[in-house]
Write a structure and sequence with these properties.
Layout lengths: L15 H7 L10 H6 L1 H4 L1 E6 L2 E7 L5 E3 L10 H15 L3 E6 L1 H11 L3 E5 L5 E5 H6 L6 H13 L4 E4 L5 H13 L5 H14 L2 H4 L2 E7 L2 E10 L4 E9 L6 H12 L4 E3 L7 H8 L5 E3 L2 E5 L3
Parallel strand pairs: 10-11
Antiparallel strand pairs: 1-2, 2-3, 4-13, 5-13, 6-11, 6-12, 7-8, 8-9, 9-10
Helix pairs in contact: 8-9
Length: 299
């Protein structure tokens, strides 16, 4: 019998391929490898591959605490992984907690532990998913306001250009992020976000990141970073505009959607921020992917 602890470690860039092997059929933004790697300090993220499953552990920094459900291996070994996680929590003298659970994973834990499992839900953790074609074409009555906004932007800035992010122009993208940060009220969370963007610029190839930059009159005014979680879904990690060109968001959103090669785009969660929720809903998500927590009251 496993008595723990498990051997969790910090994510490294060369974990990318193994993580992607475990996420071939999942839509969740938290499983995009750049998020796992770039946010490891923010959330105290550790990982391991146990019985071919990816399992993560969060220290409680930020808003995440506990374990994630094992993904990627044979379904016949999930129960053994859950037993190993329970033993690890006991060895750590921690409460047995899970986070970032899909509805199916939460149901599995409820059936596995019965009344010992208390399931929780926070609307702010839900991912917003869109059809790439919807965001690229903006067809139909639902997108009338977006088309109008975009057309007004194009009339105002007829020389606007969208360029693919490359090692040669990544400093332009970083300059946009720097100006965005300066315009915000200072906070540890936003500083973490900027540092993640900065870090990503020097690991683009290892993390399989793509991106784009918007130029107006030759000046970089907006940037985006994104990556494929798998062949079905692209995760948008960051979109930033400098304050005087906020209207460029509707343009870079459309250009990125046209550039990606997957059916789905995941624009991540709204963190219960009213303005962010309103913006994400305004693009009419095809799916809002709920995520759950679980606290397991074991002896």
């Amino acid at each position: 019998m496993i008595s723990g602890p498990l051997h969790f470690r910090e994510p490294q860039p060369d974990d990318a391929d193994n993580v992607r092997r475990c996420t071939v059929s999942l839509l969740c933004s938290d499983l995009a490898f750049p998020n796992i790697y770039l946010l490891k300090n923010k959330y105290g993220t550790k990982l391991l591959f146990h019985m071919e499953h990816l399992i993560r552990h969060f220290s409680g920094n930020g808003r995440l605490k506990g374990y994630t459900f094992p993904v990627g291996g044979n379904t016949n070994t999930i129960n053994a992984c859950l037993v190993a996680i329970e033993a690890d929590a006991k060895a750590r003298q921690e409460k047995l907690q899970y986070c970032l659970l899909t509805a199916e994973q939460a149901e599995y834990l409820q059936l596995f532990y019965g009344k010992k499992a208390q399931i929780g839900y926070d609307r702010g953790d839900a991912d917003y998913l869109y059809k790439s074609s919807d965001l690229a074409l903006l067809n139909g009555n639902a997108y009338h306001k977006k088309r109008t906004h975009l057309n007004n932007f194009l009339k105002k800035y007829p020389d606007v250009v969208f360029q693919k992010l490359t090692p040669e122009n990544r400093q332009d993208a970083l300059n946009v992020a720097q100006q965005w940060l300066k315009s915000q009220q200072e906070s540890p969370a936003l500083l973490h976000e900027y540092r993640a963007i900065e870090n990503s610029m020097f690991h683009m190839e290892q993390l399989h990141l793509s991106g784009g930059i918007v130029y107006i009159d030759g000046k970089p005014v907006a940037m985006a970073l994104y990556s494929q979680v798998n062949e079905s879904v692209t995760d948008i990690h960051y979109e930033k505009c400098i304050p005087e060109y906020r209207d460029a968001y509707v343009y870079i959103n459309r250009e990125v959607a046209a550039a990606v090669k997957t059916e789905w785009i995941n624009r991540e969660e709204d963190l219960n921020i009213d303005g962010l929720r309103k913006a994400k809903l305004s693009y009419h998500p095809a799916l809002i992917l709920s995520k759950y927590t679980a606290t397991i009251y074991v002896d």
